[in-house]
């Protein structure tokens, strides 16, 4: 009996010891799951991969997993609409782990802004790309479009120059026009802007280089880029070049004060490669006469260093935002002070913005008030100094030692009226410092939107949009009467000479819009359907007042008076539109839109047009044969078709016969009296908008729980009624040429975009994004009837010769193709002076031997973005590449010959270093049209490299500080021999260089 008891006792002890040991070898994992704002996420799941062990968070976001055996595991933390987080963990006791989830920006539940409303990304049927603030370009960003450079497939953003406020050329799928605007329609918070440029490329708002420079990028929350016609047709006759919808920041959550500040230093990255003073002396001694050698000086002046400077910029922004029970609000202010690297140039911008979004009657009535204002004060540097610095003789000093011409050294000719050598370059530094060109521009953009949800039918909303965009631009230009520019330019009735300039300009612009529309959205669960519809009316009026002022010399002498004190062009748009979107079984989507537009720019019988579109999308991922896939997480097919128009033709009254009154320098003498004359102007009553029909096929895809997402699109566009200049028979019209709708063109392309979260843990994340675009275009018609003898419409004016054009628009060729002579080379690859290929074999080199060679548009362009976050550190870069684009090096063609250096007018100029390798004399007038100067301008550019550190909370429950540093325009890899290969027009004629910029900044949130 005692033995049995002893055995039982031993077994009991052994069991207890094993239980204790087993208990000692298990642990627990506990913690909290919250979002990026530290708000708890109830209902989130925390599971151990490969097991059924896990937990769900409670109302406070807390979770607990008990009785976990000691060892190493991988946790999966999931919450609907947020990025799934993977975290390695080692359990050897009680383990505490808190997790912060971030919203899945590429989530199918993401809401995207579209025309006249929003839509879930998963229900989109058109080619639409959304870019939010977290994906924007970093650094000193002074205009909105720079935020998305390199970020979107099919969208090209090329900086116009390195000048302050110069803005960029934006092209969506390459544009669709020859003579009209190729700029996309830009809509900011529901207000369509008139951002198209004048025919000469200048800003339509006087006093600024770019209208978008009056908008503070720091106030922008997101961009929606509408690319295909099924997405853009809702905007009708302004949508052929695509649409960009800008949404500004709104208030939400608890009251927050945000302050950001940046300080940057900009420097010239690369100079034009010109001869040094010693090289020039050697060249002239080897090739010039004794008299020409005597024109050389003893100085060693680097004129490019004389005109450029290290530029400083500060950019400060502050905002207060939050929300009370019924009133979300945000108020912001900004101040930008930017120097240009070209001396004397600067820009100061003051901005302010208010957004109020109150709601009433338990959210049945919602108001949204947006007011944005800006004041830009700018001094424009004389950019002619850039070309002068390249060609001015480096053996000559900056200053002459006399008081004449302000003390600046100039080429003199005692026999001329003004004492200056005719056609000789002027002193570059004098051109800058003796010109004071200042502007003062105000602009305000705002609107009030009213959204009323009917009580009896809550799915139906009535919407009203009242908006405006007004600007007031004025400026003064003063050039001293001692300056070589304009010296003794006017001789009065008493024979006294006057010089210099003292002129002014003023312009007022008003853009007003009224829109009213009904919107309806409802889920019909019984038939597995979702319907949303929009129908509305739009009226927009554009009025510009240009004041005309007399031409006045520096001492106030009037050279000429304007014929009219002002002119007041105006145009209006009236439209009705509708859209229906139908989703069945969360698989099949049908979208149809139509817009009927009327534009006052056209004759009454040609004023109205209809622009329809249709699209179909198939969510293949929701089909049974793909459901449950462990790899594929999204797959959608999109098909779209539509028609859009282009009414930005640059003129408001071209269909009306009119008379021009001559100015005071073109009068007719009758007896002893001089009279101004009225002269009929050319007109074309049949002009109408250009019309583009496009088709799009696309796929959206996602892999591994959408850790890899992307899109592929193919598009084909055909534009008819292209505006083109055509010659008129003598006596048939009042102009030798008119602009008429007689052209057709096609374009097609492929776009690819992919984003991947390569690493996604609580401590380390790494995401990369790549986009690629292939585009080609061809002109198919330029005359009413086929005409093989018609070479095309010349364009692309260049410096060199008189009235020279280097490009042409011709049938069966891309737009703006270079039209040049084919250079002949020797056995060593050196161009033979004045020798070109006789392409038609008639023994004469003339215009019949010009041929189409390359064009400025790239065949492909790419964007690459990478971002790494490790704990509180972050780093990233953005790079862009362009392949297949060519540029005409007008700097080399103007300065790279013996004739341009040893000038027959009796001066010695500097030259570009390519004169040493080419040996061209420049004696042939055809030299400037040689294909020798068409150079491969493909490039890889590192736009931005950045690093930052987030200090986290400054106080117990609030406050955050982040510091950052970045470099912009880090490097460029290219074969192009000029300063910069990225040239919007394809003609490099002394481009204002883009600087390399070093930036330090911080963001403080309280």
TrEMBL record:
The record's section on InterPro entries has: Beta-barrel_TonB (IPR000531), Beta-barrel_TonB_sf (IPR036942), CarboxyPept-like_regulatory (IPR008969), EF_Hand_1_Ca_BS (IPR018247), Plug_dom (IPR012910), Plug_dom_sf (IPR037066), TonB-dep_OMP_SusC/RagA (IPR023996), TonB-dep_OMP_SusC/RagA_CS (IPR023997)
The primary site where this protein sits is membrane
Record domain TonB-dependent receptor plug: where:
121-243
- Alphabetized Pfam families for the sequence: CarbopepD_reg_2, Plug, TonB_dep_Rec_b-barrel
Chain ranges of the TonB-dependent receptor-like beta-barrel domain: 404-970
Give the signal peptide as a residue range, or say none if absent: 1-24
What are the record keywords, sorted?
A: Cell outer membrane, Membrane, Receptor, Signal, TonB box, Transmembrane, Transmembrane beta strand, Transport
State what protein this is by name: Iron complex outermembrane receptor protein
Give the organism the record lists.
Mucilaginibacter oryzae
């Amino acid at each position: 009996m005692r033995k049995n008891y002893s055995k039982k006792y031993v077994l009991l002890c052994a069991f207890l010891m094993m239980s204790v040991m087993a208990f000692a070898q298990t642990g627990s994992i506990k913690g909290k799951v919250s979002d990026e704002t530290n708000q708890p996420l109830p209902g989130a799941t925390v599971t151990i991969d490969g097991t059924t062990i896990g937990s769900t968070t409670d109302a406070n976001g807390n979770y607990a997993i008990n009785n976990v055996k000691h060892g190493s595991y991988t946790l999966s933390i999931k919450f609907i609409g947020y990025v799934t987080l993977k975290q390695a963990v080692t359990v050897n006791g009680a383990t505490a782990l808190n997790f912060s989830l971030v919203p899945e920006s590429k989530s199918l539940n993401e809401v995207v802004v579209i025309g006249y409303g929003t839509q879930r990304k998963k229900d989109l049927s058109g080619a639409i790309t959304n870019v939010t603030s977290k994906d924007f370009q970093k650094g000193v960003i002074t205009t909105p479009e720079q935020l998305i450079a390199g970020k979107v497939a099919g969208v090209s953003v090329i900086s116009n120059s390195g000048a302050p406020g110069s803005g960029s050329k934006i092209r969506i799928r390459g544009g669709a026009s020859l003579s009209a605007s190729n700029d996309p329609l830009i809509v900011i918070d529901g207000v369509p802007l008139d951002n198209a440029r004048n025919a000469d490329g200048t800003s339509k708002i006087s006093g600024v280089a770019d209208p978008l420079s009056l908008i503070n990028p720091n106030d922008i929350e997101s961009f929606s880029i509408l690319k295909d016609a099924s997405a853009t047709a809702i905007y009708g006759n302004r949508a052929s070049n695509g649409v960009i919808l800008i949404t500004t920041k709104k208030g939400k959550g608890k009251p927050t004060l945000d302050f950001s500040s940046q300080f940057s230093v900009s420097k010239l990255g690369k100079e034009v490669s010109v001869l040094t003073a010693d090289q020039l002396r050697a060249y002239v001694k080897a090739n010039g006469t004794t008299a020409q050698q005597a024109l050389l000086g003893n100085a060693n002046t680097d004129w490019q260093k004389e005109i450029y400077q290290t530029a400083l910029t500060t950019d400060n922004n502050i905002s207060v935002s939050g929300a009370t029970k019924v009133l979300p609000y945000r108020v912001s202010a900004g101040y930008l002070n930017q120097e240009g690297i070209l001396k004397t140039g600067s820009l100061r911008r003051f901005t302010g913005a208010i957004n109020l979004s109150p709601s009433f009657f338990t959210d049945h009535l919602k108001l949204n008030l947006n007011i944005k204002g800006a004041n830009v004060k700018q001094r424009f540097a004389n950019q002619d100094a850039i070309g002068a610095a390249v060609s001015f003789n480096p053996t000559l000093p900056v200053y002459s030692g006399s008081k004449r011409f302000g003390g600046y050294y100039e080429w003199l000719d005692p026999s001329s009226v003004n004492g200056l050598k005719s056609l000789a370059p002027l002193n570059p530094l004098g051109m800058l410092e003796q010109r004071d060109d200042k502007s003062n521009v105000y602009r305000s953009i705002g609107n009030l939107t009213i959204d009323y949800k009917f009580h009896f039918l809550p799915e139906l909303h009535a919407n009203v949009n009242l908006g405006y965009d007004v600007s007031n631009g004025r400026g003064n230009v003063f050039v001293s009467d001692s300056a070589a520019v304009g010296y003794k330019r006017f001789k009065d009735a008493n024979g006294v000479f006057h010089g210099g300039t003292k002129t002014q300009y003023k312009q007022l612009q008003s853009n007003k819009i009224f829109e009213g529309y009904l919107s309806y959205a409802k889920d019909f669960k019984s038939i597995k359907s979702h319907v949303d519809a929009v129908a509305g009316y739009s009226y927009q009026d554009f009025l510009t007042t240009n004041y005309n002022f007399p031409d006045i010399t520096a001492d106030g002498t009037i050279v000429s008076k304007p014929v009219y004190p002002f002119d007041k062009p105006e145009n209006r748009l009236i439209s009705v539109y509708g859209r229906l979107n139908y989703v069945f079984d969360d698989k099949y989507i049908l979208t149809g839109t139509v817009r009927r537009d009327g534009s006052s720019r056209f004759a009454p019988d040609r004023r109205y047009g209809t622009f329809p579109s249709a699209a179909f999308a198939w969510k293949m991922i929701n089909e049974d044969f793909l459901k449950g896939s462990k790899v594929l997480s999204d797959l959608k097919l999109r098909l779209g078709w539509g028609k859009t128009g282009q009414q930005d033709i640059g003129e408001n009254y071209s269909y009306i016969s009119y008379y021009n009154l001559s100015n005071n320098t073109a009068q007719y003498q009758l007896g002893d009296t001089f009279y101004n004359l009225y002269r009929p102007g050319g007109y074309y009553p049949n002009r109408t908008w250009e019309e583009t029909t496009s088709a799009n096929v696309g796929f959206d895809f996602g892999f591994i729980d959408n850790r890899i997402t992307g899109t592929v699109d193919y598009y084909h566009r055909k534009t008819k009624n292209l505006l083109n200049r055509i010659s008129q028979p003598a006596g048939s019209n009042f102009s030798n040429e008119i602009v008429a709708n007689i052209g057709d063109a096609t374009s097609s392309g492929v776009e690819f975009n992919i984003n991947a979260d390569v690493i996604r843990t609580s401590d380390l994340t790494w995401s990369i994004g790549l986009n690629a675009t292939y585009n080609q275009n061809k002109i198919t018609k330029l005359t009413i009837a086929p005409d093989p003898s018609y070479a095309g419409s010349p364009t692309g004016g260049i410096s060199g010769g008189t009235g020279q054009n280097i490009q042409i628009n011709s049938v069966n060729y891309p737009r703006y193709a270079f039209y040049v002579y084919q250079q002949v080379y020797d056995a060593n690859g050196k161009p033979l002076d004045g020798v070109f290929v006789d392409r038609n074999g008639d023994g004469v080199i003339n215009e019949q031997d010009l041929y189409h060679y390359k064009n400025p548009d790239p065949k492909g362009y790419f964007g690459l973005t990478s971002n790494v976050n490790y704990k509180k550190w972050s780093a990233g870069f953005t790079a862009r590449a362009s392949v297949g684009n060519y540029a005409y090096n007008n700097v080399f063609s103007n300065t790279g010959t013996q004739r341009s250096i040893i000038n027959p007018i009796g001066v010695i100029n500097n030259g570009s270093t390519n004169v040493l390798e080419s040996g061209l004399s420049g004696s042939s007038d055809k030299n400037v049209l040689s294909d020798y100067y068409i150079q491969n301008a493909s490039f890889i550019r590192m736009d931005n490299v950045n690093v930052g550190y987030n200090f986290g909370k400054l106080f117990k429950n609030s406050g955050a500080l982040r510091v950052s540093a970045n470099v912009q325009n880090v490097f460029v890899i290219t074969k192009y021999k000029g300063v910069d290969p990225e040239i919007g027009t394809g003609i490099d004629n002394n481009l204002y260089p883009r600087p390399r910029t070093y930036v330090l900044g911080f963001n403080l949130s309280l």
